[in-house]
Amino acid sequence: MKSLPLFLAAMAATTAINGETKIFKDSLQVTVGEVKIYASAKDDHTMGAFAVAQSEIKLSGNASEPATLNQITATIPNLNMPDYGSSLTSAIYIRGIGSRINTPAVGLYVDDVPIIDKTGFSFNFVDVAKIGVMRGPQSTVYGRNAMGGVVNIQTMNPFTNSGTTLRLDGIKESKDFSAYVSHSHKINSTAAFSVAGFYNTRDGFYRNQNLGNSVDDRKMGGGRVRTIFMPKDNLLVDVSANFQHTNEGGYAYEYRGATTDKVADPVAIGAISSNKKPTYWRSLGFGGIKAQYVGSKNIISSITGFNLINDKMDIDQDFLPTDTFELSQAQRQRTVSEEIIIKSSRAGRWQYTNGLFFYYQWLKTASEVQFFEGGVQMINTSMQAAMEAAGSPVHVTLTDDGMDIPGTYKTPALGIALYHCSTFDISDRLTAQVGARLDYERTKIDYNTWSSDVEYVMDYYGQTIQNALPGAVYKGSTDNSYFNFLPKISLTWHSPAGYSIYANVASGYRSGGYNVQMFSDIVSASFRQHNASITEEEINDIITYKPEHCINYEIGSHIRPNSHLAIEIAAFVANITDQQVAQFVESGFGRRIVNAGKSRSIGAEVSFMANALDNRLILAANYGFTDARFTDYITYENGENLCYDDNRVPFIPQHTIGSTIDGVVVRNNDLNINIGLSLNALGDIYWTEDNHCKQDTYAQLGAHADVKYKSLSIGIFGRNLNDAQADTFYFESLNHKFAQSCKPRHIGMSIGYKF
Prior knowledge:
Elements: E1 7-9, E2 21-23, E3 29-32, E4 35-38, E5 53-58, E6 79-80, E7 92-94, E8 97-99, E9 106-110, E10 113-114, E11 128-135, H1 139-142, E12 149-155, E13 163-171, E14 176-188, E15 191-202, E16 218-232, E17 235-248, E18 254-258, E19 279-294, E20 298-316, E21 325-344, E22 350-371, H2 373-389, E23 394-398, E24 403-410, E25 413-425, E26 430-450, E27 454-460, E28 463-469, E29 473-495, E30 499-510, E31 513-514, H3 519-528, H4 536-543, E32 544-545, E33 548-562, E34 565-577, E35 580-584, E36 591-595, E37 598-612, E38 617-632, E39 634-637, E40 640-643, E41 655-667, E42 671-683, E43 685-686, E44 694-695, E45 698-709, E46 712-719, E47 727-733, E48 736-741, E49 746-754
Parallel strand pairs: 9-12
Antiparallel strand pairs: 1-5, 2-3, 3-4, 5-11, 6-7, 7-8, 9-10, 11-12, 13-14, 13-49, 14-15, 15-16, 16-17, 17-19, 18-48, 19-20, 20-21, 21-22, 22-24, 22-25, 23-27, 24-26, 25-26, 26-29, 27-28, 29-30, 30-33, 31-32, 33-34, 34-37, 35-36, 37-38, 38-41, 39-40, 41-42, 42-45, 43-44, 45-46, 46-49, 47-48
Helix pairs in contact: 2-3
């Protein structure tokens, strides 16, 4: 499939499985009889192949292919990972289920190792071979935060991809330059390794009109190493480690006008004009050790994983040239996980998978919110309004030019789970699958936040008193524990004509947690309420949000009548309770996750892939439709209750469309020339719970041409060639509207050499 840089096809087995099991040097390939199964170590031989909607992108190393998860948006039906903010903002949505901040709703695995926190979801691909996406809840096998689906990334196998690759890439419009080197070596029949490294620098697409500099410039580098040992035919050890460091700008949020006629526009609409350059740097490491033993009756796998994240963000939170307030936040995170999987290795009427999963996460967050003159004035205005509404004769005015609110927050989390899945061949045509998972999770927060002392003037019946208001101090802890029972059941009927029909019911959940960002609002509220104390119980209610749960009902079909055609169709209904919604608080001094109530998501998907002319022409297309609406959501804003029932859930595209056409112009022993076109589209996307603004459906055109002569390759590619004008993110804060637009038209070139 080297002629298809972006290959999208349904992974659907349509042949009964029988025979013995043999494991190959590729730990992800198992042959049973004449059928090859490509799956993760978690999957049963039929699990994930029959009763779930799946898509796959195969990569061959061309610069025109996806380099990050953001770039697979709309190439998978009902998948959207918008590109905005910085590497920290890794929101991802599948079928109307997703998360903008805090815990993710989609699981991510790299070579079977989980990436626990979505802070690590945005990284550059290095030696990635393929990306598989399972849509719909996968929590029975994959556990926490897989209620929207799972993304499985597999890197190149050094046993089958020996050689050295050098590549240079460049993009004109953003002055983007990348250098990449990779080496894979098969030492002997029992050992192979690969090592790769890259460096990237860019000036960026967006400019700050106030400061006159680039907003999204970046310097980034990293590498990976993978070693596979096969001391025996039935024993495999796979060790991998990845590290990437980035130092970047970001948060290219344009001003889009005031939310009310009573507020004047401080800058021109469409301008990026903060008075401080936002920055974000991150060191990211992940990897693991996978050991797999194939016995006469069972395949036993042990997967030990680690995640490491150190990062720091500095951001002007009013995003305007005014001196209001800024945020500095640093995280130090360490996560270890262990999973033991035992699944049957012999074919038969009954196949099973048993698993035990454990993880522990250390996370320390240090943040400081700095209020400047504009922020202090906002607190004064809020205080005066509250005292006048209460009829108080006292008028208090803070006189300092600024105020600091630092804090440290430790939020460890622990989880343990047991799961089992059984697959029964009821007949040669009918297969049933039953699974269940018992998941326990414990979260905790230790917080210590305070504010500086503030000078004030108090007017009391004409008497003026000048004094210092002591800073507020909040120190305490709380913890929560959750049990989740996650069943799944499915039926699949296999036709001798080359298609299968399935139906499943599956449950999933997304973890609860704590709104660390709310502490600046809690502390400033004590000043707005004239130093009123907020109890620990009230703090717990403000910062804590519960897990989100989902039940998904799905029917679908995999159609593969021959090797030239593959079609996948699915329809689903997902009911979500304790819906987690990200909101900016009324004061504008923080954001939080709240459990908004209930929602439901109804949708359908179709994927199509065909090849002709001896694989010289390949067509791939997909369409996804999602109607995600609140069914029970009442919120309190500006002194009144608002009902958002039947409103669309924000940030969820109603339509996703992806299509590619790739052709081989020349193919011989020395020379290969491939060309291709792609068209991706998504929308409508509503940005707020009240649905008063949205992004209409828009499309982006792409193209590529690749020439390979012996070991030398040259490629040229273009993205958003139609220069579509659209927003990838929108929000409202402090009576102002902001948005980030999608990247403009850009063209790149790549030169590579492999030996």
